[in-house]
Write a structure and sequence with these properties.
By secondary structure, the chain is mainly α. It has 7 helices and 2 strands; from the N terminus they run H-H-H-E-H-E-H-H-H. Helices cover 60% and strands 3% of the residues.
Length: 128
């Protein structure tokens, strides 16, 4: 995670659930904070610089405005619901873990994303 994203999510809004989870994941070592580019004005810019530096298949985000920018730039991205589905399909999540993760995401993702993830998880669809 770029340092500016950490500042934008953890320091500027410390009481939000995302901030608390990100802070916990940094503390446990599940997320690593890396220095960003000096010319970045926003966390999104640092994310793109990190992605372009290589070593990543996609950008993970739930920010609709950023997703539009990624589409224009042709940068692959994954939204939280798809990540849960892929974790289940890979065996990293049990069915129960996937169900709990999707339920926890529900207030934070669009109804369409939630419904699509449910269909794939329990309705037999496959995410490529």
């Amino acid at each position: 995670m770029p340092a500016m994203v950490r500042r934008e999510t953890v320091e500027r809004a410390p009481a939000l659930p995302d901030a608390m989870r990100i802070r916990d994941n940094i503390a446990s070592g599940r997320l690593t904070v890396v220095a960003g580019g000096a010319d970045a004005k926003r966390g999104e810019d640092e994310v793109l610089q990190l992605y372009k530096a290589g070593g990543f298949d996609a950008v993970a985000t739930d920010d609709v405005r950023f997703i539009r920018r990624l589409r224009v730039l042709g940068v692959p991205y994954a939204v939280p619901g798809v990540i849960v589905v892929k974790l289940r399909q890979s065996g990293a999540f049990s069915a129960d873990e996937a169900e709990k993760a999707l339920a926890a995401l529900r207030p934070h993702i669009s109804p369409e994303e939630h419904a699509a993830a449910q269909v794939v998880l329990w309705g037999g669809g496959v995410v490529p």
